[in-house]
Design goal:
Layout: H1 7-40, H2 55-73, H3 80-104, H4 109-129, H5 138-157
């Protein structure tokens, strides 16, 4: 029951804002990884196409769409499910870009590790966005955050960032 001063409502709002910050941080990190991997692979923003006709244009378009989605987070009311989906989509874009960077590096050991780490971050973000908790599950969110941190470290080790 909500107190006359709206304490329960403000606590719920604060919790959603905190989740927004967590999902948003993961999404921004994944977009940064994706953009860095594209740069490393020689893919620029101008290669993005509404209907991609090459792996390079698909990678550039996924980074473009994820960047726009992350920017739009600030304009909407917090919604843990939608915010988690945004982070999931950004992590998926980073995986597409990592695949391109790995190919650019002729699948070297560090590039392969960075790609696998990107894939794990994408899977963890998908788990955090899905299920019955829809972005609110603490354990899944923590796993997604740890996977994103590992993906950043692997991308740095590969020289992509």
């Amino acid at each position: 029951m909500t107190a006359p001063n709206g304490t329960a409502q403000s606590e719920a709002s604060a919790a959603e804002e905190a989740l927004r910050a967590r999902h948003g941080a993961r999404a921004r990190s994944a977009v940064d990884r994706a953009a860095a991997a594209c740069r490393h692979a020689g893919i620029d923003e101008g290669q993005a196409k509404l209907v991609p006709n090459s792996p390079e244009s698909a990678a550039a378009q996924s980074v473009r769409l994820s960047s726009r989605s992350v920017a739009a987070l600030a304009e909407a009311a917090p919604d843990p499910a939608a915010d988690a989906r945004c982070a999931r989509n950004a992590a998926a874009a980073a995986t597409v870009a990592a695949e391109m960077a790995k190919a650019h590096d002729d699948s070297g050991e560090r590039a392969e590790a960075a790609y696998r780490s990107a894939l794990q971050a994408s899977l963890a973000a998908a788990a955090a966005a899905g299920g019955s908790a829809l972005g609110r599950d603490e354990e899944l969110n923590s796993k997604a955050e740890a996977a994103e941190t590992a993906a950043v470290a692997a991308a740095r080790a590969a020289g992509w960032m």
